[in-house]
Fold each of these.
Amino acid sequence: MKNAYITGASQGIGKEFVKALCKNYNVFLIARSESDLKKVIQELEPQSRGILKYFTFDLSRKKEWEELSSILQKDTDFELLVNNAGFGTVGEFAELPLETELDEINLNVKALVALSHVALHSFKKRQKGFLINVASIAGYLPAPGSAIYAATKAFVKSFTESIHEEARNYNVFVQALCPGLTHSDFHRRAGIEKSKYPDFMWQDASEVVEESLNALRYNQAVCITGSVNQGAVTISELMPRGLLRRLSGKFLSLDGK
């Protein structure tokens, strides 16, 4: 049985990837909280056909993403990576703590790039492998009030589309997963009031993962989950950018109070 690695595996989308993949892979869970990782393994181990193990890393720290990269590089059975770890912040950029914003870039972008690099290097040599980088529909939009988050996800989407094309000749499947509002702990940590958004805009994490893995089978470069999100992206791409920026600001209550 081959090995899969999932970052941000302790809750939400990451946990659902563990649940889906543990039927066909040994799964290595990566997150910061050892207690949360142990809870996930205890819950999912009875339905797993492979081994479930964990590593505790804070991937906003260069030393720790380098340590994980070294583990991946040495694993001859490494076949699948889900780069799911990430976080967002809410507020006007000038008023947010700079150190937190830089940590957000480190985790959402730098760690993802480093882990993607070692994964693709390994997969190319073996002529097989699967890489899912979790972006967001926020990557399609200007997002006053979440400027760094949207910018990092735009990077992830563009970067992943590019490496998708580079990898396709080597039987390596690469996907940018772009969910929208998803029930998880992400929004509480970001300080986002969930009740602000209507129910129809939300998806369960299990739905996001199911759509992602279905799209991965066909080597779909970008997977926008849910018909609501797909429609929103289509409309946004037809809209003048100036108008889109203004509407985004009003929607996030940072403009036109």
Note: Residues 93 and 147 are 7 Å apart (CA to CA).
Amino acid sequence: MREYCIKKLEYDILPDIKDKIDNLNKPKGSLGRLESLAAQVCLIQRTLTPELRHPCHLLFGGDHGIEREGVSATPREVTWQQMVNFSRGGGGVNMFCRQHGFKLYVIDVGVDHDLSGFPGIINRKIAYGTNNPLECPAMTQEQLERAMDIGAEFVDECHRDGCNVICVGEMGAGNTSPSSIWMSVLGDIPLSECIGSGSGLDEAGVRHKSDVLSVVTGKLLSGIGEGGGVDYVMRYCGGFEMVSAVGAMLRAAELRCVILVDGFIMTACALAACAICPDALDYMVFGHVGGEGGHKKLLDLLHAKPLLDLGMRLGEGTGALCAYPLLDSAVRMVNEMNNFDNAHITKYF
């Protein structure tokens, strides 16, 4: 896996940023999270006049071998059916992208269906789904690196078009299962605290899912004991769409883009990205806390403060897209609000 060159944020301009924000014509701190969010964007862009340009949303699709074990309420065919729906503009992700002005890329990296006949879907298929990790690693090292490179490739394309805000989403039946394992292994959290109902399992379904994931985790941990690292964790039980998301996040941080992180699955990908390059965390804005069981604990592990709590758990990147207007408001605040001197208002603190 290639080396990533992510620059640690430099805080030498933070006093100037705080001074500008504190002197806007408002009580000090009265715009709350918008103020810290604005400061984060200023630090990322190293400017007192930040801007959000050409926001892009990358939606990666892939199927999972572990889905064959009955760990998801969503049938496998829903992955490709939804990908087709996205290509025709009919998904939740399409609606939010249109609403907030995001360019949407629908990218097949591992869907278990031939989608080559749909012009709205970009074909970067690595394989027709991953292997079943109960039997062998989900993917090879070569496939892992290819998925990482695909994620970076699309960030590069967006950046060439002037983008400095990258949002990432996913589509893949069963992908809360590998996300739970990543959370447990990379975050050193008991697996039982990482497993939820996914797309709608009942209590018996969750128990079965837990049993299956416990076996997979045991196999994975034995490999780690033989010298496996973060890449081994991703390779053993990840999905192509998840690994592509990790590659996209890391490349976006290299390019000093703001990274909008969605729900449980994308937060697990953020955890993996930060395990590879801890400084990537500084570039991430966490859109929401979702309804999947382990998501809040996963956010706490990253010391992340989500912007929204709407009980959402759709995936696709929809929660992050819903949070974008707050990011936009934070940037507008620092650029468009007057200060006390110019507005001829007495500064009273």
Note: The two ends are 52 Å apart (CA to CA).
